[in-house]
Amino acid sequence: MSLAVDDNYTIHQSLYKAAVDLAEQRYPDGWAGAAALRTNSGNILTSIAPAIKQEGLGLCMEVGAICEAHKLNEEVTHSLCVSRSDNQTSFVILSPCGICQERLFHWGYDVQVAVTNAKNQLIFKPLKTLMPHHWYQAFE
């Protein structure tokens, strides 16, 4: 999906809608979760965390979309993950875990990531605010 957007609010809302739509479609009952990433060309890439029998082999929700961005040779500019516990609860925004922060860092400190917050507002911050003492600074 490619969007012609130039407004951060529209980008954020589009990512949220893409993630929730995929989560609801893939997991109509019970737990649901999905990720949506935006690339520098305006593409929105979505993915899920596959339900597998061996939890130790599980992947984060962002991984499929991150791999797709690499395949397309596009830079990720924004990332968002959502999850709900069941059909009676609202989707909540999940900040990227430490491993996904490292995966997203491939595209630099300025990747905008949605962050968990008390009011579940759609707030994006540059990746560098989540990792202010990143090891890469030793090599800059």
TrEMBL record:
NCBIfam families on file: PRK08298.1 (NF006155)
This protein is called what? Cytidine deaminase
Q: From which lineage does this chain's organism come?
A: Bacteria, Pseudomonadati, Pseudomonadota, Gammaproteobacteria, Oceanospirillales
Lineage top rank: taxon: Bacteria
InterPro entries attached to this UniProt entry: CMP_dCMP_dom, Cytidine_deaminase-like
Q: What species is this protein from? A: Zooshikella ganghwensis
Which residues are in the CMP/dCMP-type deaminase domain? 12-109
Gene Ontology MF term list? catalytic activity
